[in-house]
Amino acid sequence: MKLSVIIVSYKVRFYIEQCLHSLFRAVDGIETEVYIVDNHSDDGSVEYLTQRFPNVNIISSNRNLGFSRANNVAIKQCTGEYVLLLNPDTIVGEHTIHDVLAFMDEHERASGVGVMMLKDNGEKAMESRRGVPTPMTAFYRMSGLCARYPNSRRFARYYMSYLSWDEPAQIEIISGAFCMLRREVLDKVGLLDEDYFMYGEDIDLSFRLLKAGYENWYIPTKILHYKGESTHRSSFRYVHVFYDAMLIFMRKHYGHFSIFVSLPLKIAICFKALCTLIGMQMHSARKLLGLVRPRKRLTTLYVFIGKKEHLEDFNRLAKRHGIDAAFVEGTVSTLPKGHVGQEFTSYQRVYATYDTEAYSYEDIFNIFSGSSQQNILMGTYNPATQTIVTGEEVLR
């Protein structure tokens, strides 16, 4: 078996459906097995996915194992020469996996590879390339020096933003959203550390690969990452889990440092978490007392861009959900720039929603990355399932 793909799921069945749709295009011609580990979703995810994807290995856990342990369950069962850890809220380009495997086949010291991750407005995600969060690197980020001097190899090491986006480069940390690993190396350095429930496990594994003498790489092939569709980043649980992961990493890899180095950093992490929690509490209290102005509802438009024969189904879906919709007939051959150049000035937010039979995922990525605008976000429409998927919602 050439490739094993592992996706951990928790209440995101429609995003996984979209992810699998793109994945099966991307692994065409590659001997591949796919594992989904469901972390005890109570929304019918297992039944829904089992019915629609009979060739996918679905493991249904009777409790929420967390990200690390759930991945490890599947890694122990899979047989691929390469193992891809893939988030459910991603879309994979048609050539992405071929590009990554070709690179790894040619670079024997490459233990793992990450890719260019796009946000849903077409911007490149800084998390695509990261450095090890050493005490000083973490300090530079938390103090704002990383953002202030993005081209500095010293201050900007956390996101390695001094590297070219368009060339392969050695990096230190591979994002767990798309992490291609060489299985024989994974067997040597060990699986994901299960002390991390969520967050930090990709940093820990990447660091262990480096310490074992291997190389981690970034290559400029694209995926979309909605970035945490299954995670409520404003929740107290998120703050607790995220900062706890930072402390676990510090204790594990830098516990031997002088107390004069480790203690201030631990205090800074705890202080940052405390400030975040206090800010959330204050916002909740002000909102309860009516001191926070309610946000104005954004005027939103869904623009369908695709084949003529799919317009009617999309229109029916738009009417069912009471959304404002516009329609642009075209394919990549007749309308290669898609929504670019169209006027949507009367709307504050626009979902440019592409027919996935008229445009490949890579076509959509290239259109957005060539002309990213904050208020124009990526959407997809799958005629086979008659489903609209955006980073905010799913319409069926």
TrEMBL record:
It comes from the Bacteria. Gene3D superfamilies: Spore Coat Polysaccharide Biosynthesis Protein SpsA, Chain A (3.90.550.10). Residues 4-189 form the Glycosyltransferase 2-like domain. The keyword Transport does not apply. The keyword S-adenosyl-L-methionine does not apply. SUPFAM superfamilies: Nucleotide-diphospho-sugar transferases (SSF53448). Keywords: Transferase. One of its GO terms (molecular function) is transferase activity. This is Glycosyltransferase family 2 protein. It comes from Leyella stercorea. The lineage of its organism: Bacteria, Pseudomonadati, Bacteroidota, Bacteroidia, Bacteroidales.
